[in-house]
Amino acid sequence: MAKQLTEQELRREAVQALSDRLGPVDALRFLALISREPFNYQEWRRKYFSQYNVDELLDEVRKHHAQIALLERARAGGFQ
Predict the structure, then answer these.
(1) Count of beta carbons in the 10 Å neighbourhood of residue 31
(2) Are 27 and 14 contacting, i.e. CB atoms less than 8 angstroms apart?
(3) pLDDT per residue as tens digits for the range 11-60
(4) What share of the chain is helix, strand, coil (3-state, %, to 5)?
(5) Is the pTM of this model over 0.85?
(6) What is the domain partition of the chain in residue ranges?
(7) Alpha carbons 54 and 36: distance in angstroms, whole number
């Protein structure tokens, strides 16, 4: 299992993911947008996760951990 990221690492990875997906300008626009709008995490969580049952969530977690393991092996030179 992958190690848990520190808060600093999590922020860096999240900003990088946003930038990779949206480009640097839209990533910054998104960050500015969410920083000035109120956000109710509990309400979002209930709405987002209501579409999944427990088995589906577990399957998504397993896929995520498998992807992380592949990335870590690739970074460590496991794929040559």
Answers:
(1) 14
(2) no
(3) 999 999 999 999 999 999 998 988 887 888 899 888 888 888 889 888 98
(4) 75, 0, 25
(5) no
(6) 1-37, 40-80
(7) 33
